[in-house]
Amino acid sequence: MPRIPPFLPLLLAIGALLGGCRGGEAPPPTIPAVLVQPAAGAPATGAIYTGEIRARHEVDLAFRVGGKIASRLVDAGAEIKAGQPLARLDPADLQLAAGSARAQLTGAESELATTRAERERYAGLLAKKFVSQAAFDAKDNALNSAQARLEQARAQSQVSGNQAAYGTLSSETPAIVTAVLADAGQVVSAGQPVLRIARPEEKEVAIAVPESRLAEIRAAKNIQVALWAAPATALRGELRELSPAADPATRTYAARIRLIAPPPEVRLGMTARVQLGGDAAGELLVPLGAVLDIGSGPFVRIVKDGKVVSRPVSVAAFREDGAAISSGLQAGEAVIVSGAAKLVDGQAVQTRPLTPSDRQR
Question: Which CATH code for domain 62-88+168-194?
């Protein structure tokens, strides 16, 4: 039996492999996958501040006289009417003071009647030469003094009556109670705040502005306000007040942004975001890496019907959050955001939407 060379099985295996490759079909070309992002409207540029919805008119209500609070009739958040009682003081001392003033008024009226009769009697005696002119003048001066004491007692009685009415705290206008600063049983002095109220007809946003942004907020022509609880609600605002002095603790300047025609769902105390800057309406925002330029002007590559298409564009501005496109691109088109320089027009690609994790990479 002849001996088989040891390399013959290896040659047969290589020949079978080459024969199989010649008889099979070529593998299909690989379709690359690209990251795309829909072209969307560019938000307005400028600084963003967080603030609170406040009323333009806020007032601390206080009793005009001191005393012990006997009752508090409203709570924080209550809607009150003009003249509605809100709190009352203990009326005992006020009523005693009013009674004392009335008693003094009665005594002054009696004293005046007595001195008037005495003067008339002395006037008759003076006509008959029974008394001297000096004695009559003394009675006349006593009558004038009694009249002055009556006017004083009448004024004091009116003041005491007013103070008795001051024992009931009320508001002159319809408002909303925003804070309770004193409660029943507490002894307060005249002028000490008891309730804080706000008139809801005019609303604004209170924000704090750093000193490096003062010129920007003064020159802002377009101020947009968005509510944290309702981000879809877009409001317009304007600068109404900017503090002339910085807060000693935060070194920021307090500013008030007046809301123009706010809807009813805007309530006091809501969190709001104030954005300054020019209007970017009509511009589309794409990632910076999506804009290419090979010497003939900027362009982007989009995916249309599964193939790559180049689009010349006009760039309005390169911003921190992307490139603002003013023309050449339509909203919603799938823009290739990475690797567009390695592709060619008409090339078939697979699309994969850009995710937040891709943005971080």
Answer: 2.40.50.100
